[in-house]
Amino acid sequence: MNFQAPKGVKEYVPPQVATFSAIRAAFAETARRAGYARMETAVFEDTQLFARGVGESTDVVSKEMYTFTDRGGRSLTLRPEFTAGVLRAVLEYGLHRGQLPVKVWTDGPVFRAEAPQEGRYRQFYQLDLEAIGSEDPAVDAETIALAWQWYSSIGLTQVRLLLNSLGCKECRPIYRARLQEFLRGLDLDEATRARIEINPLRVLDDRRPEVRAQLEDAPLIGDHLCADCKAYHDRVKQLLADLGIPWEDTPRLVRGLDYYTRTTFEFDHPLLGAQSGIGGGGRYDGLSEAIGGPPLPGIGFGLGLDRTVIALEREGVAPATPPRCEVYGVALGEEAARAMFKLLSELRAAGVAADMAFGGKGLKGAMKGADRSGARFALILGERDLAAEAVQLKDLTTAEQTEVPLAQVVDVLKGKVQ
Ligand code: HAM
């Protein structure tokens, strides 16, 4: 075969996909218990939604979007993140006219044209949760707590929560001007000097040692928060402390997307190396207006499923995954295969994961299939068993075999596997 998946596209295939599926399923439960409804949104959007929402000056918009023109001449972009599209859909369907906050979550592939490496892909997977329409520190703490609970529910123990406040439309411009003033006095290259004028906070995120060294005395947003932002941030921390969730105050935490205000956070994993950010989020109180909607505050997060899978591997934990097959049917002869096929359907309807040997394999080949399936039990049905209306039930862990009447086998197995 000459084809391979395009460069940087992350795929999950059996058996490794089991972990991926299990942690997604765990999130559905975490979200449901907190009143978040699942939604499905567009995989591609009007390019302007991201330009206005995420921000023209961000790397995501300026360098990493998969943008194409459709047959009608429209400029469309594969979603590089969920938030702008989720908010667009909330506004489009008028969900914000009902109970607030609108609590929604979704997940799926996200696309960014980045240089691929371990933990950094061009098609990757995010779990995204948003609470839209409330400006209440408890909502901020709730979203953070849900991500935290999910990490812990899947077995991760080394996740760190980095927390900051980016201020609001009152105090941020004052801080921004002060930061610009400071940055203009430094010895920086052309591109970084240009960034000072467009997005000075991003300069704080520079990883080059020669830049870092000069940033040591940079003014920090934490010292410039207005009284409201400070009180808000203190309250978020108080609520997190009440839940026993530890955080690290990270005054230089700036996120890669422009819409953030006030609470911002990242989840970091120490065993992941360069791509240590396994999730991130924050408040985006001006995003709705930026995309042409009414004032509508919001907060949420995006969790990187791919990096989370790597973190699990590094911590050496495997989340429990439901068995793919609990009972494996081995039928010998055409009539027995017919009866087994029907039995399989009855077992599945009764909630038992069941499979069988297909393709008329002999006993040996079929028993090999039973072993490979991971099933705990094999059901062996020969012509003679069929005549006696019975089936041989073999426990593959002990090799113990018993005869069970065909009419009882579903009940017997239900009792054994559940
Ligand atoms: P983000 O920080 O850009 O935030 O992405 C969230 C997570 O996606 C990151 O922490 C990381 O785990 C994962 N991620 C990002 N880029 C890649 C990549 N190229 N390969 C693999 N994983 C990646 C957002 O996208 C915001 N929409 C989050 C949010 C929701 N804020 C408010 N609501």
Brief overview:
Residues 21-323 form the Aminoacyl-transfer RNA synthetases class-II family profile domain. 39% of the residues lie in helices and 21% in strands. It has 418 residues and is of the alpha+beta class.
Rg, rounded, reads 27 Å
- Largest sheet, strands/sense/barrel: 8 strands, mixed
Under the CATH scheme, the architecture of the largest domain is 2-Layer Sandwich
Number of E-state strands: 16
Number of domains: 2
Measure the end-to-end span. Answer: 43 Å
Q: Give the helix/strand class.
A: alpha+beta
The average pLDDT is 96
Please give a structural write-up.
There is one protein chain. By secondary structure, the protein is α+β, with helices and mostly antiparallel strands. The chain has 2 domains: 16-171 and 225-315, BirA Bifunctional Protein, domain 2, CATH 3.30.930; 327-417, Rossmann fold (3-Layer(aba) Sandwich). Helix content is 39%, strand content 21%. The chain has 16 helices and 16 strands. It has helices at residues 17-33, 47-53, 59-63, 83-92, 137-153, 171-184, 190-198, 200-203, 209-214, 227-242, 287-290, 305-315, 334-349, 363-373, 383-387, 409-417; strands spanning 37-38, 44-46, 67-69, 75-78, 102-111, 123-132, 160-165, 248-249, 261-268, 277-283, 298-304, 327-331, 354-356, 377-381, 390-395, 401-405. It has an 8-stranded mixed sheet with strand order 1-5-6-11-10-9-7-8, sandwiched between helices. The chain has a 5-stranded mixed sheet with strand order 13-12-14-15-16, with helices on both faces. β3 (67-69) and β4 form a beta hairpin. It is elongated. The mean pLDDT is 96. Histidyl-adenosine monophosphate (HAM) binds at residues 81-83, 112, 114, 119-121, 124, 126, 128, 130, 256-257, 277-282, 284, 300-302, 304, 306-307. Histidyl-adenosine monophosphate binds next to β6, β10, β11 and α12.
